[in-house]
Amino acid sequence: MIPKIEQASTQEIKAFQEEKLKELLAYLNTNSTYYKRVFSKHNINISNIKSIEDLVQIPPTTKDDLQQYNDDFLCVPKHKIIDYVTTSGTLGDPVTFALTDKDLERLAYNEAISFACAGVTNNDVLQLMTTIDRRFMAGLAYFLGVRKLGAGIIRVGAGIPELQWDSILKFKPTYLIVVPSFLLKLIEYAERNDIDLNASGVKGAICIGEPLREQDFSLNTLSQKITSKWNIELFSTYASTEMNTAFTECQHQQGGHHHPELIIVEILDDSDRPVSQGEVGELTITTLGVEGMPLLRFKTGDMVKAYHGPCACGRNTMRLGPVVGRKKQMIKYKGTTLYPPAMHNILNDFADVESYIIEISHNAIGTDEILIKIATKNTSQKLLQHIKDHFRAKLRVAPKIEFHDKREIQKLQFPAMSRKPIHVIDKRL
């Protein structure tokens, strides 16, 4: 199930996207209060925007814009709205997105081709281990996508290893849709209860919310821990509510594939100009085919690298590498630039570390400080020193580390109304 446009030449893909871009600009100029105001304020004649390169004439849309003018992005009358979702609010107040029936169909198509990208077929059964309620787009998107693909789905929801295993053993799913660190809890439960992991029938996991790979696409520490015990394929998928689109790995696992019929991608520098090919920049997206709340040059806040050239799977689309980090969560610590994912990988290296939270703050002189709170049964100074030494070896600096009660850390990781675990608290924002 590879859409024809994804196997077209790069020139054909670009020409296709530029036609879709013209349609989007005309739609926004007619229906979007927010973008009509932007075009007027900056004297932008949309007929002059003919190519993707011409997009630099339009100022990017930021998360602050979405929060401040949320209702002005709506392009349809209220009676056409079928579903309301909100962003997770990781870097600020949640933003509401309204979806029409057409948007839900687009969402289903996106997830169907994304699952197919990872090798899922209509002969498979998937177990959904994320919430489908709490105004969460992802859970609904997965359900709609599996349905459109013609596969089976078991809606178990988040947490509760006992219930997850009851469903796995009863219904024999072939794929799990899951936050990867939760797989460690499933492994732990299976080992305690004499469940044979590799006789379960599960052959793969579509993983969300946490990185699986290093920047060279090799498995990171978390993935190695999982696959050393459970012989399953791990597939990374990257998405956000604002994008209404996913970038999912194929079986060759060399980055998440771009779906050009759904989204235009730019990788921008600090001056909002495209970076040179192969450089890290901020992922900036323009949604195609969204009816309710389309976005034009929206800066996601995620720092990524794009990979070009054909993939062995037959797609000629651009691929996104693992997220380097959130732009707003970049830390300058003792002269070293850090992003939280690099610290996650080091902490996941220690079996004694049961859970953790990273707190980033400013000190009295305004420079960045890092405090890592760790829950562990082994509260020895030897472990503390070992972790600090590992940080110095990998990142050249060692943050402040403290032992804390596991329940205290779990409260920080799962605040009220949370839909996924929080591992970073940035007090600078």
User: Which structural class is indicated by helix and strand composition?
Assistant: alpha/beta
Poorly predicted segments: none
Number of helices: 11
In whole angstroms, the N-to-C terminal distance is 43 Å
- Helix % is 25-40%
Strand order of the largest sheet: 4-3-5-6-7-8-9-14-13
Strand content: 15-25%
Multimeric state: single chain
Instruction: Please state the average pLDDT score.
Output: 92
* Main beta sheet strand tally, sense and closure: 9 strands, mixed
Question: What is the total tally of β strands?
Answer: 21
Radius of gyration: 22 Å
Q: Which term fits the overall shape?
A: globular
Give the helices and strands, then pairings.
Elements: H1 10-31, H2 33-41, H3 63-68, E1 81-86, E2 96-100, H4 101-117, E3 125-128, H5 137-149, E4 152-155, H6 161-171, E5 175-178, H7 180-192, E6 204-207, H8 221-229, E7 233-240, E8 245-249, E9 256-257, E10 263-268, E11 281-287, E12 298-304, E13 306-307, E14 319-320, E15 325-326, E16 331-333, E17 336-338, H9 340-347, E18 355-362, E19 368-375, H10 381-395, E20 400-403, H11 406-413, E21 424-426
Parallel strand pairs: 3-4, 3-5, 5-6, 6-7, 18-21, 19-20
Antiparallel strand pairs: 1-2, 7-8, 8-9, 9-14, 10-11, 11-12, 12-15, 13-14, 16-17, 18-19
Question: Care to describe what's here?
Answer:
- This protein is an alpha/beta fold and 429 residues long.
- 31% of the residues lie in helices and 23% in strands.
- It has 11 helices and 21 strands.
- It has helices spanning 10-31, 33-41, 63-68, 101-117, 137-149, 161-171, 180-192, 221-229, 340-347, 381-395, 406-413; strands at residues 81-86, 96-100, 125-128, 152-155, 175-178, 204-207, 233-240, 245-249, 256-257, 263-268, 281-287, 298-304, 306-307, 319-320, 325-326, 331-333, 336-338, 355-362, 368-375, 400-403, 424-426.
- Strands 4-3-5-6-7-8-9-14-13 form a 9-stranded mixed beta sheet, with helices on both faces.
- Helix 4 (101-117) crosses helix 5 (137-149), helix 6 packs across helix 7 and helix 7 packs parallel to helix 8.
- The longest helix is centred in the N-terminal third of the chain and has 22 residues, at 10-31.
- It is globular.
